[in-house]
Amino acid sequence: MQDEYRTVAHPGVHETEVNRSRFLCALAPAATEQEAQDFLAAVRKEHPDASHHCWAYVIGADASVQRAGDDGEPGGTAGVPMLQMLLRRDMRYVVAVVTRYYGGVKLGAGGLIRAYGGAVGEALDSLGTRTRRRFRLATVTVDHQRAGRVQNDLRTSGRTVLDVHYGEQVTIDIGLPDAEVPAFRAWLADATAGTARFEPGGEAYGDA
After folding, report:
1. Which residues contact 24 (CB under 8 A, 6 or more apart)?
2. What does the pLDDT read at residue 1?
3. Could you state, in chain order, the average pLDDT of each consecutive group of 10 residues for the chain (208 residues)?
4. Which of 63, 92, 156, 201 has its CB surrounded by the most CB atoms within 10 Å?
């Protein structure tokens, strides 16, 4: 699994103009291919009179799914440069749709490649991205007497506290990088005089 990847912070649209043609790049997070295709369909519906709706998406932290489409532009001049820009920026779980309103001036193959790839790059810069990092999920079980201090220490040290459950004892669900697990175990044992229990779980991605 990838240790980290980047995705868009939120859906949005950024517009550029090249030789009187308008290029509207719409970006959105997409957890699945279906979400990416639904987003493309929504953009098409919003701009039914546009000349082209070219698109690209990357799904999976390891970029296992990569698709692109030129929507009538010369082959390889739109979807591919858009996809290459997403991959160059390490973007994952993201869909990009560039809607073009033709302005009457032909751009040529090189001009189209620069325009479509550039529209995605500018949109990423304008709308912003966020980094998602792989975490080890784990559960800390501690007695009520020490739970408050442990929770406070976790938060002040920047640890990711996912949930807290109160029962006979207190269980705290956390996420931390794999490399920090040994040091965390040692800290927990010291902070609780060896009374806390640490149970590692699976893996997930969270904001870095």
Report:
1. 13, 14, 15, 47, 98, 99, 100, 101, 119
2. 60
3. 82 94 96 96 96 96 94 94 96 97 90 96 94 89 92 85 92 88 92 92 78
4. 92
The pLDDT tens digits of the residues spanning 82-131 come to 999 999 999 999 999 999 999 888 899 999 999 999 999 999 999 999 99
H-type alpha helices, the chain: 33-46, 79-88, 108-127, 144-156, 181-191
- Location of structure tokens 């927990």: 188
State the residue for tokens 């550029």.
Answer: 16
Tell the residue number behind the tokens 């807290």, with chain if given.
Answer: 164
Query: Are 157 and 180 within 8 A, CB to CB?
Result: no
Q: Which two tokens stand for residue 114?
A: 């620069």
Helix then strand then coil, % of the chain, to nearest 5: 35, 40, 25
Q: Which pTM does this prediction carry?
A: 0.74
Residues for the chain: how many in total? 208
Element (H, E) at 187: helix 181-191
